[in-house]
Design a protein that fits this description.
The strands form 8 sheets. A 6-stranded mixed beta sheet has the order 1-2-5-3-6-23. The protein has a 4-stranded antiparallel beta sheet with strand order 18-19-9-20. A 4-stranded antiparallel beta sheet has the order 10-12-14-13. A hairpin with a 2-residue loop joins strand 18 and strand 19. The protein is elongated and about 80 Å long. Helix 6 packs across helix 7. The protein has 503 residues and is α+β, with helices and mostly antiparallel strands. It has 2 domains: 271 residues, Aminopeptidase, CATH 3.40.630.10; 201 residues, Alpha-Beta Plaits.
């Protein structure tokens, strides 16, 4: 039929567009995704429960090869791969689980190690999948970061195998076991690994992550120093935080010689922070203050309430003697504050049009032999060189020391490089899958503050498991996936593998 008139062309367009939209995700991919959920959702949840039981946390006092949590975890993966009819390879810190044949392949990259968890802050053990405390949620360390995605990928591959879906590319699931602690073993593995043309990490957010800020840190040591005129109020202790990539939900201070007037002033300022729960106790004539906020991943400090920063702010009412604790509180109040974009730290703050602002979150204050070390976690976007940022950090610290007449101990600055991939060939198919299953037709590529293994592989982007606009629960003391999200991830990961394996 010829369509010479504008009206006839418009009518034909109305007929064609719905058909084209329906065909965006292939029938094969949609049917396989539906089958995966129908057939394997309960088994996927059971596998997640099995994986969560292993406390795959790096330990300084025990080598990886001797850690039974990791050897047990790998054994569970090997057994599960065998049960599902998938190929299993053990490369030490890296496990490869594969489906299909041929030299052309796609890499699905994830990790099986997790961050520590403070069991006292969980309704049940963080290393037991909890389905009862909050119905509809799967709670446990690793559920979102990254054992949930591993379980999802396994059953997506199983569904594809069951249905004998034709694939032009072999699927290789890479499970790295030191992502949270040491990237060197993965770098060594990748030197000899036949790199896939397309790589997808399942360790971040939807729709598709094409840029990641660089994980960076400023470590400032306040040296031990005896307080002169010890009859005046001073800070004997100040500490908090659990690990370096978590916005801390707890911090502590101990005040010696606190006067009633000082206590009232601290309490009054603390009352201005309703998002923080403060407790005040006075054993042995000292004032003990505990601040409790909300923990979150340090790549998203806007979703947490930083107990260390707000405790320091509550103590801002007094000019503390500059021992280690006093110096630390002055540093935090003067240069860090309670904001999250380093606006008080000299000239270091900046932003990128796509990646957003550099964020800053104090994550730990911890004592060692050299003094009191404050860890300030920065997530830096493109837009400013590492050299310039390093100079600005040292300038701000130098000027602050002069202004305060305080001499810091060691200052260490580590600046990770931001990652940005342009024109990834599998970007549009991934966006198509996400749009189809969520109805978010305007979804496009996004940037995150996190730092995944994507930056070590060519053409690597991230695809889930966290939905846009939803706080990432990994690294928090309340990590979970909803059952609904777990089901949706299985659909999208199955469809994604079918589509990308046939590019």
């Amino acid at each position: 039929m010829k369509c010479n008139s504008p009206v006839s062309r418009f009518l034909l367009l109305l007929l064609i567009v719905p058909l084209a939209a329906a065909a965006d995700v292939s029938r094969e991919a949609r049917d396989t995704a539906d089958y995966a959920v129908r057939k394997y959702e309960p088994a996927m949840t059971g596998t997640l429960a099995e994986l969560v039981r292993f406390q795959t946390v790096a330990r300084e006092d025990l080598a990886f090869e001797e850690n039974r949590e990791f050897t047990g975890f790998k054994r569970a993966l090997r057994n599960k791969a065998g049960e599902l009819g998938l190929e299993y390879q053990d490369h030490g810190h890296v496990v490869v689980i594969a489906l299909g044949e041929g030299e052309r392949k796609i890499g699905i990259v994830t990790h099986g190690d997790v961050q520590p968890a403070d069991a006292s802050k969980w309704a049940r053990s963080p290393f037991e999948l909890d389905r009862e405390s909050e119905p509809g949620k799967l709670i446990g360390r690793g559920t979102e970061d990254d054992k949930g995605p591993i379980a999802t990928a396994l059953y997506a591959m199983k569904a594809i195998k069951d249905r004998e879906v034709p694939m032009k590319r072999r699927i290789e699931l890479l499970v790295y076991l030191a992502e949270e602690s040491d990237w060197e073993p993965l770098k060594a593995f990748l030197k000899d690994y036949d790199m896939p043309e397309y790589n997808i990490t399942i360790d971040a957010s939807y729709p598709v992550v094409t840029a990641e800020k660089g994980w960076s840190e400023v470590r400032v040591t306040a040296a031990p120093k005896t307080v002169e005129h010890s009859d005046r109020p001073y800070l004997d202790e100040f500490y908090g935080g659990y690990f370096r990539s978590q916005v801390p939900d707890e911090a502590h201070a101990r005040v010696i010689n606190a006067t009633p007037e000082l206590v009232r002033a601290i309490r009054a300022r603390a009352d201005g922070h309703p998002q923080i729960r403060y407790t005040f106790e006075s054993p042995d004539a000292a004032l003990e203050i505990t601040a409790r906020g909300k923990a979150t991943h340090s790549s998203e400090p806007e979703h947490g309430v930083n107990a260390i920063a707000f405790l320091a702010d509550a103590l801002k009412v007094y000019d503390w003697p500059a021992n280690a604790a006093g110096t630390t509180v002055h540093y935090l109040n003067d240069l860090v504050g309670t904001g999250i974009v380093a606006e008080q730290f000299g000239d270091i703050a900046y932003t990128d049009d796509f990646m957003g602002p550099m964020t800053a979150a104090v994550t730990m204050v911890k004592k060692d032999d050299s003094g009191l070390i404050t860890h300030l976690n920065l997530r830096r976007p493109t837009g400013k060189s590492a050299g310039q940022l390093d100079r600005e950090i040292h300038k701000a610290l130098g000027e602050w020391q002069k202004r305060r007449d305080i001499a810091l101990g060691k200052v260490e600055v580590d600046l990770g490089e931001p990652y940005r991939v342009e024109n990834a060939p599998h970007l549009e198919p991934l966006l198509t899958v996400f749009r189809h299953y969520t109805g978010m037709d305007d979804a496009g590529p996004v940037a995150i503050g996190g730092s995944t293994n994507a930056k070590l592989l060519p053409n690597a982007v991230s695809f889930g498991p966290s939905m846009p606009g939803v706080a990432y629960s990994g690294h928090s003391e309340h990590e979970f996936l909803t059952e609904e999200q777990f089901r949706l991830n299985l659909k999208m990961y199955t469809a994604m593998m079918v589509e990308i394996a046939n590019l």
